[in-house]
């Protein structure tokens, strides 16, 4: 009975990344093994590689579990060895590893058409964090500022509400002033005399 519980715990712990707790697949969550034999998903390792300071003398990342260094492959995180044992335990349609590559600060995958009739191919990229070059960091800060300004403009409901309230406020304040200036009288609202009963 104890071995069954241990087997279940072992298989369930191998079915998910111990950093993000996502289940493994054959794309961005491909199980990749470090030199210390600990396995994590490709996306988490790519984020760890992206977080390595550019002034660090060696191109190593430290295992999040045991702190043992592992050399970063030339291809980046996709170059780490795939854990075929875990991959083989996935559902059959996820057992074939798909080609994933690093493009700048993105992890990318391009689906190829599966048949001649299916001509739709598309590319999926996910952002994995900051790039190491300072040029890109400056560019990303500039683009973040632009996105912030555009984000304000995209919030059109708030802007519209602001202008409607502004027009109403100006109308309430300026209409009596306009009346005072045109009539020369402070009493713009003259009430019609109430007829007296005779």
From TrEMBL:
The keyword Protein transport does not apply. SMART domains: RING. One of its GO terms (biological process) is protein ubiquitination. The chain crosses the membrane at residues 159-177. Residues 17-67 form the RING-type domain. The keyword Kinase does not apply. GO terms for molecular function: ubiquitin protein ligase activity; zinc ion binding. This is Ring finger protein 223. InterPro entries: RING_finger_E3_ubiq-ligases, Znf-RING_euk, Znf_RING, Znf_RING/FYVE/PHD, Znf_RING_CS.
């Amino acid at each position: 009975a104890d071995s069954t519980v241990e087997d279940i715990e072992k298989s369930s712990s191998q079915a998910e990344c111990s950093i993000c707790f996502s289940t493994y697949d054959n794309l961005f969550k491909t199980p990749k093994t470090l030199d210390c034999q600990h396995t994590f998903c490709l996306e988490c390792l790519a984020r760890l590689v992206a977080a390595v300071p550019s002034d660090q003398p060696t191109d190593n990342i430290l295992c999040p579990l045991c702190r043992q260094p592992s050399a970063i492959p030339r291809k980046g995180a996709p170059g780490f060895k795939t854990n075929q044992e875990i991959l083989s335990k996935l559902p059959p349609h996820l057992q074939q590893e798909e080609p994933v590559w690093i493009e700048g600060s993105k992890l990318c995958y391009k689906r190829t058409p599966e048949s001649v009739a299916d001509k739709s191919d598309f590319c999926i990229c996910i952002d994995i964090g900051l790039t190491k070059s300072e040029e890109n960091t400056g560019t990303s800060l500039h683009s973040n500022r632009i996105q912030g300004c555009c984000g304000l403009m995209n919030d059109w409901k708030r802007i519209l509400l602001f202008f409607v309230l502004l027009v109403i406020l100006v109308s309430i304040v300026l209409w009596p002033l306009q009346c005072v200036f045109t009539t020369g009288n402070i009493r713009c609202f003259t009430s019609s005399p109430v007829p007296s009963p005779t």
